[in-house]
Design goal:
3-stranded antiparallel sheet; Arc Repressor Mutant, subunit A; single chain; 9-stranded mixed sheet; TIM Barrel; 16 helices; alpha/beta
Protein backbone atom coordinates (compact mmCIF):
# COMPACT_ATOMS: atom_id res chain seq x y z
CA UNK A 1 0.00 0.00 0.00
CA UNK A 2 0.95 3.65 -0.29
CA UNK A 3 0.47 5.94 2.69
CA UNK A 4 0.39 9.74 2.65
CA UNK A 5 1.09 11.75 5.79
CA UNK A 6 -0.44 14.94 7.10
CA UNK A 7 1.63 16.60 9.85
CA UNK A 8 -0.26 19.10 11.99
CA UNK A 9 1.73 21.99 13.46
CA UNK A 10 -0.74 23.55 15.94
CA UNK A 11 1.05 26.83 16.63
CA UNK A 12 0.39 30.42 15.51
CA UNK A 13 1.75 33.72 16.71
CA UNK A 14 -1.78 35.17 16.60
CA UNK A 15 -5.21 33.64 15.97
CA UNK A 16 -6.97 35.10 12.92
CA UNK A 17 -10.52 36.29 13.53
CA UNK A 18 -12.15 33.81 11.11
CA UNK A 19 -10.12 30.76 12.13
CA UNK A 20 -11.56 27.80 14.00
CA UNK A 21 -8.70 25.40 13.20
CA UNK A 22 -7.05 23.43 15.96
CA UNK A 23 -4.32 26.00 16.60
CA UNK A 24 -2.88 27.68 19.68
CA UNK A 25 -0.69 30.65 20.47
CA UNK A 26 2.19 30.06 22.92
CA UNK A 27 0.45 32.19 25.56
CA UNK A 28 -2.66 29.99 25.33
CA UNK A 29 -0.58 26.95 26.16
CA UNK A 30 1.84 28.21 28.77
CA UNK A 31 2.18 31.57 30.53
CA UNK A 32 5.09 33.52 29.17
CA UNK A 33 6.22 30.68 26.93
CA UNK A 34 8.01 31.25 23.66
CA UNK A 35 7.23 29.19 20.61
CA UNK A 36 10.57 27.40 20.98
CA UNK A 37 9.75 26.30 24.52
CA UNK A 38 6.25 25.13 23.68
CA UNK A 39 7.29 23.23 20.55
CA UNK A 40 10.56 21.90 21.96
CA UNK A 41 9.29 18.37 22.57
CA UNK A 42 6.40 18.49 20.10
CA UNK A 43 8.38 16.88 17.27
CA UNK A 44 9.46 14.12 19.68
CA UNK A 45 5.77 13.35 20.26
CA UNK A 46 5.01 13.34 16.53
CA UNK A 47 7.85 10.87 15.95
CA UNK A 48 6.47 8.60 18.68
CA UNK A 49 3.06 8.63 16.99
CA UNK A 50 4.70 7.77 13.67
CA UNK A 51 5.80 4.44 15.15
CA UNK A 52 2.14 3.31 15.14
CA UNK A 53 1.51 4.05 11.45
CA UNK A 54 1.46 1.17 8.97
CA UNK A 55 4.32 0.67 6.57
CA UNK A 56 3.85 1.70 2.98
CA UNK A 57 5.70 3.90 0.51
CA UNK A 58 4.84 7.57 0.87
CA UNK A 59 3.72 9.61 -2.18
CA UNK A 60 2.89 12.88 -0.33
CA UNK A 61 3.61 14.64 2.96
CA UNK A 62 1.77 17.83 3.89
CA UNK A 63 2.70 20.07 6.85
CA UNK A 64 -0.33 22.18 7.79
CA UNK A 65 -1.54 24.10 10.78
CA UNK A 66 -1.32 26.45 12.38
CA UNK A 67 1.76 27.98 10.87
CA UNK A 68 4.33 25.27 10.11
CA UNK A 69 6.81 27.86 8.83
CA UNK A 70 7.21 29.15 12.40
CA UNK A 71 9.21 26.03 13.23
CA UNK A 72 12.86 25.69 12.20
CA UNK A 73 13.64 23.59 9.15
CA UNK A 74 15.68 21.09 11.15
CA UNK A 75 12.68 20.30 13.39
CA UNK A 76 10.33 19.67 10.47
CA UNK A 77 13.14 17.87 8.70
CA UNK A 78 13.29 15.33 11.53
CA UNK A 79 9.76 14.23 10.59
CA UNK A 80 10.59 13.97 6.88
CA UNK A 81 13.76 11.99 7.67
CA UNK A 82 11.86 9.61 9.95
CA UNK A 83 9.14 8.95 7.37
CA UNK A 84 11.82 8.45 4.70
CA UNK A 85 13.75 5.97 6.83
CA UNK A 86 10.67 4.09 8.01
CA UNK A 87 8.31 4.07 5.02
CA UNK A 88 10.35 5.25 2.08
CA UNK A 89 9.30 7.94 -0.39
CA UNK A 90 8.15 7.54 -3.96
CA UNK A 91 10.52 9.01 -6.54
CA UNK A 92 8.14 11.92 -7.14
CA UNK A 93 7.04 12.40 -3.51
CA UNK A 94 5.38 15.80 -3.02
CA UNK A 95 6.31 17.44 0.30
CA UNK A 96 4.35 20.63 1.03
CA UNK A 97 4.87 23.37 3.61
CA UNK A 98 2.11 25.83 4.50
CA UNK A 99 3.63 29.23 5.26
CA UNK A 100 2.72 32.72 6.39
CA UNK A 101 4.40 35.23 4.04
CA UNK A 102 5.74 37.17 7.04
CA UNK A 103 7.38 34.12 8.63
CA UNK A 104 9.94 33.20 5.95
CA UNK A 105 13.42 34.41 5.05
CA UNK A 106 15.73 33.33 2.24
CA UNK A 107 17.78 31.36 4.76
CA UNK A 108 14.73 29.59 6.20
CA UNK A 109 13.45 28.71 2.75
CA UNK A 110 16.81 27.24 1.75
CA UNK A 111 16.72 25.24 4.99
CA UNK A 112 13.27 23.85 4.18
CA UNK A 113 14.48 22.79 0.73
CA UNK A 114 17.49 21.07 2.27
CA UNK A 115 15.14 19.30 4.68
CA UNK A 116 13.24 17.80 1.74
CA UNK A 117 10.36 20.19 0.98
CA UNK A 118 9.65 20.79 -2.70
CA UNK A 119 6.28 22.57 -2.59
CA UNK A 120 5.17 25.62 -0.58
CA UNK A 121 1.74 27.20 -0.10
CA UNK A 122 1.50 30.79 1.11
CA UNK A 123 -1.56 32.13 2.90
CA UNK A 124 -2.18 35.26 0.82
CA UNK A 125 -5.99 35.50 1.37
CA UNK A 126 -6.29 39.00 -0.15
CA UNK A 127 -4.30 41.84 -1.70
CA UNK A 128 -6.55 44.47 -0.12
CA UNK A 129 -5.54 45.80 3.32
CA UNK A 130 -9.14 46.42 4.44
CA UNK A 131 -10.07 42.82 3.60
CA UNK A 132 -7.06 41.47 5.49
CA UNK A 133 -8.07 43.66 8.43
CA UNK A 134 -11.58 42.19 8.42
CA UNK A 135 -10.03 38.71 8.40
CA UNK A 136 -7.70 39.76 11.24
CA UNK A 137 -4.70 38.67 9.19
CA UNK A 138 -1.31 39.93 10.31
CA UNK A 139 0.75 39.91 7.12
CA UNK A 140 1.54 42.88 4.88
CA UNK A 141 0.16 42.17 1.38
CA UNK A 142 3.43 43.41 -0.15
CA UNK A 143 5.26 40.60 1.61
CA UNK A 144 3.48 37.96 -0.47
CA UNK A 145 5.43 38.87 -3.62
CA UNK A 146 8.67 39.02 -1.64
CA UNK A 147 7.98 35.59 -0.14
CA UNK A 148 7.07 34.02 -3.49
CA UNK A 149 10.14 35.50 -5.18
CA UNK A 150 12.39 34.27 -2.35
CA UNK A 151 10.88 30.80 -2.53
CA UNK A 152 11.43 30.62 -6.30
CA UNK A 153 14.99 31.94 -5.98
CA UNK A 154 15.71 29.42 -3.25
CA UNK A 155 14.67 26.61 -5.57
CA UNK A 156 11.06 25.66 -4.84
CA UNK A 157 9.64 24.07 -7.99
CA UNK A 158 5.97 24.37 -7.04
CA UNK A 159 4.45 27.43 -5.35
CA UNK A 160 0.81 28.00 -4.41
CA UNK A 161 -1.19 30.78 -2.78
CA UNK A 162 -4.43 30.48 -0.84
CA UNK A 163 -7.14 33.11 -1.33
CA UNK A 164 -10.42 33.76 0.52
CA UNK A 165 -13.41 35.48 -1.07
CA UNK A 166 -16.65 36.75 0.41
CA UNK A 167 -15.16 38.69 3.32
CA UNK A 168 -17.44 41.35 4.84
CA UNK A 169 -16.83 44.63 3.02
CA UNK A 170 -15.17 43.01 0.00
CA UNK A 171 -16.49 44.14 -3.38
CA UNK A 172 -16.22 42.35 -6.71
CA UNK A 173 -13.59 44.89 -7.77
CA UNK A 174 -11.63 44.21 -4.57
CA UNK A 175 -11.69 40.51 -5.41
CA UNK A 176 -10.67 41.17 -9.02
CA UNK A 177 -7.64 43.11 -7.77
CA UNK A 178 -6.71 40.25 -5.44
CA UNK A 179 -6.91 37.63 -8.19
CA UNK A 180 -5.00 39.91 -10.59
CA UNK A 181 -2.31 40.38 -7.95
CA UNK A 182 -2.09 36.63 -7.29
CA UNK A 183 -1.82 35.80 -10.99
CA UNK A 184 0.98 38.35 -11.39
CA UNK A 185 3.10 36.31 -9.00
CA UNK A 186 5.52 33.58 -10.04
CA UNK A 187 3.17 30.81 -8.86
CA UNK A 188 1.90 27.48 -10.18
CA UNK A 189 -1.30 26.98 -8.19
CA UNK A 190 -4.17 28.91 -6.62
CA UNK A 191 -6.69 27.74 -4.04
CA UNK A 192 -9.69 30.05 -3.57
CA UNK A 193 -12.16 29.36 -0.79
CA UNK A 194 -15.44 31.03 0.10
CA UNK A 195 -15.30 32.45 3.61
CA UNK A 196 -17.26 30.31 6.05
CA UNK A 197 -18.17 31.98 9.32
CA UNK A 198 -17.63 29.45 12.08
CA UNK A 199 -19.50 29.68 15.38
CA UNK A 200 -17.31 30.79 18.24
CA UNK A 201 -14.85 32.83 16.19
CA UNK A 202 -14.16 36.53 16.60
CA UNK A 203 -15.60 37.14 13.11
CA UNK A 204 -18.86 35.38 14.00
CA UNK A 205 -19.23 37.63 17.04
CA UNK A 206 -18.61 40.75 14.93
CA UNK A 207 -21.29 39.69 12.44
CA UNK A 208 -23.76 38.82 15.21
CA UNK A 209 -23.28 42.29 16.74
CA UNK A 210 -23.84 43.88 13.35
CA UNK A 211 -20.31 45.30 13.13
CA UNK A 212 -19.77 43.43 9.85
CA UNK A 213 -22.17 42.21 7.16
CA UNK A 214 -21.66 39.15 4.95
CA UNK A 215 -21.99 39.60 1.17
CA UNK A 216 -25.09 38.31 -0.60
CA UNK A 217 -25.07 34.93 -2.37
CA UNK A 218 -25.17 36.47 -5.84
CA UNK A 219 -21.96 38.36 -5.16
CA UNK A 220 -20.29 35.20 -3.83
CA UNK A 221 -21.29 33.40 -7.04
CA UNK A 222 -19.89 36.22 -9.18
CA UNK A 223 -16.63 36.06 -7.22
CA UNK A 224 -16.27 32.34 -7.87
CA UNK A 225 -17.01 32.63 -11.58
CA UNK A 226 -14.55 35.53 -11.82
CA UNK A 227 -11.62 33.65 -10.26
CA UNK A 228 -12.43 30.60 -12.39
CA UNK A 229 -12.38 32.56 -15.66
CA UNK A 230 -9.29 34.57 -14.71
CA UNK A 231 -7.31 31.50 -13.68
CA UNK A 232 -8.26 29.56 -16.79
CA UNK A 233 -7.30 32.50 -19.01
CA UNK A 234 -3.92 32.68 -17.23
CA UNK A 235 -3.17 29.00 -17.85
CA UNK A 236 -4.11 27.72 -14.42
CA UNK A 237 -6.68 25.03 -15.11
CA UNK A 238 -9.52 24.14 -12.79
CA UNK A 239 -9.09 20.60 -11.41
CA UNK A 240 -11.17 20.66 -8.19
CA UNK A 241 -13.97 22.91 -6.93
CA UNK A 242 -11.63 25.41 -5.27
CA UNK A 243 -8.31 24.72 -7.00
CA UNK A 244 -6.55 25.74 -10.20
CA UNK A 245 -3.04 24.89 -11.35
CA UNK A 246 -0.58 24.88 -14.20
CA UNK A 247 -0.30 21.39 -15.78
CA UNK A 248 1.67 19.07 -13.50
CA UNK A 249 1.29 21.27 -10.41
CA UNK A 250 -1.97 19.90 -9.00
CA UNK A 251 -1.74 19.28 -5.24
CA UNK A 252 -1.21 15.51 -5.11
CA UNK A 253 -1.79 15.39 -1.36
CA UNK A 254 -5.26 16.88 -1.63
CA UNK A 255 -6.01 14.61 -4.57
CA UNK A 256 -5.21 11.68 -2.26
CA UNK A 257 -7.94 12.95 0.08
CA UNK A 258 -10.44 13.37 -2.74
CA UNK A 259 -9.72 9.85 -4.00
CA UNK A 260 -10.09 8.41 -0.46
CA UNK A 261 -6.53 7.07 -0.49
CA UNK A 262 -4.82 6.00 2.73
CA UNK A 263 -3.31 8.73 4.87
CA UNK A 264 -2.14 9.12 8.45
CA UNK A 265 -2.57 12.40 10.29
CA UNK A 266 0.21 13.11 12.79
CA UNK A 267 -0.48 15.61 15.56
CA UNK A 268 -3.30 16.77 17.86
CA UNK A 269 -6.72 16.72 16.25
CA UNK A 270 -5.33 15.17 13.06
CA UNK A 271 -7.58 12.74 11.18
CA UNK A 272 -6.48 9.54 9.47
CA UNK A 273 -8.03 7.20 6.92
CA UNK A 274 -6.83 3.63 6.48
CA UNK A 275 -8.92 1.49 4.14
CA UNK A 276 -12.46 1.71 5.58
CA UNK A 277 -11.45 3.02 8.99
CA UNK A 278 -11.37 6.72 9.96
CA UNK A 279 -9.93 7.89 13.27
CA UNK A 280 -8.76 11.11 14.90
CA UNK A 281 -6.49 12.25 17.71
CA UNK A 282 -7.15 14.16 20.91
CA UNK A 283 -7.30 17.88 20.10
CA UNK A 284 -5.12 19.62 22.67
CA UNK A 285 -1.33 19.57 22.16
CA UNK A 286 -0.67 19.05 25.87
CA UNK A 287 -2.99 16.03 26.08
CA UNK A 288 -1.51 14.70 22.84
CA UNK A 289 2.04 14.88 24.17
CA UNK A 290 1.11 13.48 27.56
CA UNK A 291 -0.47 10.40 26.02
CA UNK A 292 2.43 9.67 23.69
CA UNK A 293 5.10 10.19 26.34
CA UNK A 294 3.12 7.82 28.58
CA UNK A 295 3.20 5.27 25.72
CA UNK A 296 -0.56 5.59 25.22
CA UNK A 297 -2.41 6.01 21.94
CA UNK A 298 -3.43 9.60 21.13
CA UNK A 299 -6.47 8.39 19.17
CA UNK A 300 -9.66 9.95 20.56
CA UNK A 301 -12.21 8.01 18.53
CA UNK A 302 -12.76 6.09 15.29
CA UNK A 303 -15.40 4.80 12.93
CA UNK A 304 -15.66 2.02 10.39
CA UNK A 305 -17.24 3.17 7.14
CA UNK A 306 -19.87 0.90 5.62
CA UNK A 307 -19.77 0.01 1.90
CA UNK A 308 -22.70 2.40 1.41
CA UNK A 309 -20.83 5.24 3.15
CA UNK A 310 -17.72 4.57 1.07
CA UNK A 311 -19.77 4.68 -2.15
CA UNK A 312 -21.55 7.89 -1.12
CA UNK A 313 -18.21 9.53 -0.29
CA UNK A 314 -16.78 8.47 -3.64
CA UNK A 315 -19.76 10.09 -5.36
CA UNK A 316 -19.49 13.26 -3.27
CA UNK A 317 -15.73 13.64 -3.78
CA UNK A 318 -15.48 12.55 -7.43
CA UNK A 319 -18.01 15.09 -8.65
CA UNK A 320 -15.86 17.87 -7.16
CA UNK A 321 -13.06 17.07 -9.59
CA UNK A 322 -12.45 17.91 -13.23
CA UNK A 323 -12.40 14.24 -14.22
CA UNK A 324 -15.90 13.96 -12.83
CA UNK A 325 -18.02 11.13 -11.53
CA UNK A 326 -18.30 7.63 -12.99
CA UNK A 327 -21.99 7.29 -13.89
CA UNK A 328 -21.76 3.54 -13.19
CA UNK A 329 -21.52 4.34 -9.47
CA UNK A 330 -25.08 5.65 -9.53
CA UNK A 331 -28.37 3.84 -9.34
CA UNK A 332 -30.85 4.44 -12.14
CA UNK A 333 -32.80 6.84 -9.90
CA UNK A 334 -29.67 8.76 -8.89
CA UNK A 335 -28.58 9.06 -12.51
CA UNK A 336 -32.01 10.35 -13.47
CA UNK A 337 -31.88 13.04 -10.75
CA UNK A 338 -28.43 14.25 -11.79
CA UNK A 339 -29.30 14.10 -15.50
CA UNK A 340 -32.02 16.68 -14.89
CA UNK A 341 -29.23 19.19 -14.27
CA UNK A 342 -27.89 18.64 -17.79
CA UNK A 343 -30.88 20.51 -19.15
CA UNK A 344 -30.18 23.48 -16.88
CA UNK A 345 -26.53 23.64 -17.93
CA UNK A 346 -25.14 22.58 -14.56
CA UNK A 347 -23.66 19.23 -15.61
CA UNK A 348 -22.22 17.61 -18.71
CA UNK A 349 -22.43 13.87 -19.32
CA UNK A 350 -20.19 12.11 -21.83
CA UNK A 351 -18.47 8.71 -21.95
CA UNK A 352 -20.16 7.70 -18.70
CA UNK A 353 -18.54 10.65 -16.87
CA UNK A 354 -20.61 13.31 -15.12
CA UNK A 355 -18.83 16.65 -14.90
CA UNK A 356 -19.91 19.90 -13.31
CA UNK A 357 -19.90 23.06 -15.41
CA UNK A 358 -18.69 26.32 -13.83
CA UNK A 359 -22.24 27.22 -12.80
CA UNK A 360 -22.81 23.65 -11.66
CA UNK A 361 -19.92 23.97 -9.25
CA UNK A 362 -21.82 26.77 -7.53
CA UNK A 363 -24.51 24.28 -6.49
CA UNK A 364 -22.36 21.15 -6.20
CA UNK A 365 -23.58 20.40 -2.68
CA UNK A 366 -27.23 20.62 -3.75
CA UNK A 367 -26.69 18.33 -6.73
CA UNK A 368 -24.97 15.72 -4.57
CA UNK A 369 -27.56 16.04 -1.81
CA UNK A 370 -30.44 15.48 -4.21
CA UNK A 371 -28.70 12.56 -5.89
CA UNK A 372 -27.97 10.81 -2.59
CA UNK A 373 -31.25 11.78 -0.91
Amino acid sequence: MTLSFYVHIPYCIKRCGYCDFNTYTPSELQDGATLEIVSNDYIDAVLKELEAAPLGQTPTIFFGGGTPSLLPAHDLGRVIAAITARNGLTDDCEITLEANPDSVTREKLEGYLAAGFNRISFGMQSAKPHVLAALDRTHNPENVKKAVDMARAAGFTSISVDLIYGTPGESLDDWRETVTSALSLDIDHISAYALIVETGTKLAAQIKRGDLTMPIDDLMADMYLLVDSMCNEAGLNWYELSNWSKPGHECQHNIAYWKSANWWGLGPGAHSHIDAKRFWNVKHPTAYKQKLFANESPIADSEILTPEQLRDEEIMLSIRMRNGLDALLLSADQLRKISEYRGTGHVEIADNRIRLTATGRLIADRIVREALG
